[in-house]
Amino acid sequence: MRDDFSVATNELLAKRVGYRCSNPECRQPTSGPQEDRTGAINVGVAAHLTAASPDGPRYDASLTPEQRRSAVNGIWLCQTCGKLVDNDQCRYSVAALEEWKRVSELAAARALEQRRSPASEPGAAFIKAERLMPALLAEMHKDLAEHPLSREFVVLKRSWSYWAKGNELTYFYDDHSQLDNMLQILQNLGLVQEITYNNTKRFIITERLAEYLGGYDAA
């Protein structure tokens, strides 16, 4: 007997990611209009993190039927990605799918908070950044909420002496062990620009990243 999701749980999982596939490398919309003006198309599927039946992928015998049917045990995917993750359960582990779900729900929440137009929805660059450096982006989000006009930041150790210009943000190696690598990725993604001078690493937050992080109201 399968512990399938209810219709309400399917709808909840879809809504929590804005009806987009939760695979960060896909993000395909899963709902849209039919040619018939009274109908809609759904190409999404609520997939189980741990299978609904013993012969399914990633089955966990320790779960109760109620836990298997819970939205906590589900992830919203397009039909292609749903088939993909079930056909290669070694590659797509429970932990990997839980991370997809976390990042996709965070991106949906960020977009909702910023009341974005369709043209400015979070793209692959933001999804990748959220996946690789959530703590750094959360700190930047907080800083821009407090200082919405700030764009320049420096990178320091707390033990270093530094004469600030007075309006730049600061991020510390002490708080982010791979900060240089994170900033290189953000540069590669076109989200920050390096403007180092006077032997102090200095960067500019691009307007794309500032808008995504909530540096100003994009409505």
- Major β-sheet annotation: 4 strands, mixed
Number of domains: 2
State mean pLDDT (0 to 100 scale): 88
Residues in β-strands, percent: 5-15%
**Strand order across the biggest sheet?**
6-5-8-7
Helix content: 25-40%
How many alpha or pi helices? 8
Helix/strand-derived category reads alpha+beta
The secondary-structure element order is: HEEEHEHHHHEEHEEH
Shape: elongated
* Rg for CA atoms: 21 Å
Per DSSP E runs of 2 or more residues, the count of β-strands stands at 8
Low-confidence stretches: none
End-to-end gap: 49 Å
What do you see in this structure?
With 219 residues, the protein is an alpha+beta fold. It has two domains: 7-113, no CATH class; 124-213, no CATH class. Helices cover 38% and strands 15% of the residues. The protein contains eight helices and eight strands, in the order H-E-E-E-H-E-H-H-H-H-E-E-H-E-E-H. The chain has helices at residues 7-16, 65-69, 79-87, 94-113, 124-132, 134-146, 179-188, 207-213, and strands at residues 31-33, 40-42, 44-48, 74-78, 152-156, 169-172, 192-194, 202-205. The chain has a four-stranded mixed β-sheet. A two-stranded antiparallel ribbon has the order 1-2. A two-stranded antiparallel ribbon has the order 3-4. It is elongated, with a radius of gyration of 21 Å. The relative contact order is 0.12. The model has no long low-confidence stretch (mean pLDDT 88).
In short:
Helix content is 38%, strand content 15%. The chain has 219 residues and is an alpha+beta fold.
